[in-house]
């Protein structure tokens, strides 16, 4: 009798412990993502509904490009601002297909080393090939500015809001960062998705 009670008590305790560790069945919201387009898709959309363009120029072998994908392009504040204010383009600088923009065709140019470059990447980066690079263009697809190098989320957010809000036409970037940006976006930038 005493053994049965002990057995029932242990069984009940085990069931209680096991039920405490069951997986959470509640649906989780999918992380926000930038709506990446091809350059042709963005260009075509921009002709119908004008918006600025932000172009991530990368290569498959670029380590800092992957870090920017994981850290900067997943930040909720960055994702929201880019999706609302830009056509976002991912552009592989070594892709090999022809691209025609505004009746001009850009081609891949191979090299003796086996690694080539796309003419459009060279044009966007003003022949200063560096990866990652972020290129900003206005609503008419005119180059505003390419920015070379990895950009952490806060710096990237400062830049996209600077060009997105046309502050580049009103004040120098350093003044914008410490004045206008600090007033518009006080406090720390929203944490990266998944943190």
TrEMBL record:
Keyword Flavoprotein: no
Keyword terms: Redox-active center, Signal
Protein name stated in the entry: DUF255 domain-containing protein
Cleaved signal peptide residues: 1-22
Positions of the Spermatogenesis-associated protein 20-like TRX domain: 30-128
Organism: Fibrisoma montanum
SUPFAM superfamilies from the UniProt entry: Thioredoxin-like
Keyword Zinc: no
């Amino acid at each position: 009798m005493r053994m049965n009670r002990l057995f029932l008590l242990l069984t009940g305790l085990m069931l209680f412990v096991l039920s405490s560790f069951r997986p959470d069945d509640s649906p989780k919201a999918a992380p926000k993502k930038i709506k990446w387009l091809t350059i042709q898709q963005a260009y075509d959309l921009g002709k119908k509904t004008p918006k600025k363009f932000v172009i991530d120029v990368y290569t498959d072998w670029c380590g800092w490009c992957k870090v920017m994908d994981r850290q900067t392009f997943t930040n909720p504040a960055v994702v929201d601002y880019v999706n609302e204010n830009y056509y976002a383009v991912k552009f592989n600088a070594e892709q090999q297909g022809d691209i025609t923009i505004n009746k001009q065709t850009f081609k891949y140019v191979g090299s003796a080393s086996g690694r080539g470059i796309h003419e459009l990447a060279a044009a966007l980066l003003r022949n200063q090939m560096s990866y990652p690079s972020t290129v900003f263009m206005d609503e008419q697809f005119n180059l505003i500015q390419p920015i070379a190098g990895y950009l952490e989320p806060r710096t990237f957010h400062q830049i996209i809001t600077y060009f997105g809000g046309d502050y580049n036409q009103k004040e120098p970037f350093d003044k914008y960062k410490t004045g206008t940006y600090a007033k518009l976006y006080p406090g720390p930038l929203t944490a990266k998705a998944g943190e």
